[in-house]
Amino acid sequence: YTFTGWEYGSSTITDMSYTVPDFGASGTEVEFEAQWSRESYTIEYEANGGSVSVASVDVEYGQTITLPTPTRTGYTFNGWRYGSTNYTGSYTVPDFGNNGATVTFTAQWEVESYRINYDAGEGSVSPTYEDVDYNERITLPTPEPPDGYYFTGWSYGGRTYTGSYTVPDFGADGTTVTFTAQWSLESYTINYDANGGSVSPITDTVNYNERITLPTPTRTGYTFNGWMYGNTNYTGSYTVPDFGNNGASVTFTAQWTADKHTITFDEVGGSEVSDISNYTIESTITFPSTTKAGY
After folding, report:
1. Do 4 and 36 form a contact (C-beta atoms < 8 A)?
2. pTM, entire model
3. Which of 80, 147, 178, 233 is deepest in the core (most CB within 10 A)?
4. Are 67 and 162 in contact (CB under 8 A)?
């Protein structure tokens, strides 16, 4: 309170220099009653990086007020700091000193923490979750894809993210969110090496697990025995396996067996000669001679 004077009778005396009047008979006792006025103060709110609906409020000593609640993206409000204490909600105004004093209440904040769960689906990922803070810069993990697929990013909230990521405001402190791995089918190129023959097409663009029909090459004097890839020959229908990374190029090589033939001779009355068996296009032969009397 602030002292405003002494009340006597119907008057309030504010001048501390006072000339005593005639109070009546000698020895008369009179009473002066002190007059008080509640002190008024101004509380200023320092949002400290946040925002608050009122910048300041005028209050009186002993008044009970409701402190405002400020907001700040990615942070939890922990109270208004004045002196060494934090205050929230209802607050009874103490003696801030002199009448007209201005004091500052400063918002206290704690950064929000969240948990990100990583859902790799048919793939695998480590770690499977991560505890993060608002505005923290993190590196999103790269999961191992299932066979025949490649990773295209983590889906959250209609967008896809990879690599470095700045944690946004996911809501209340302690919120858990899920990032879901996105996959695309791997595509490959099969090159057909006809290995001395001819084939069409000479290349084929295929997807993992696609069912294709392998072409049949031709080569004069040979029988086609299949396309060699790895240690196996393939013909006809073929289910595309995981050839490795997306965009991988592999080569299928035609396998051939030379056709075998038998050459027989018509001596037309001449001496008999033996047939030539197992002749192939790769063979070099010497034709036998025959004789005939008179010729």
Report:
1. yes
2. 0.71
3. 80
4. no
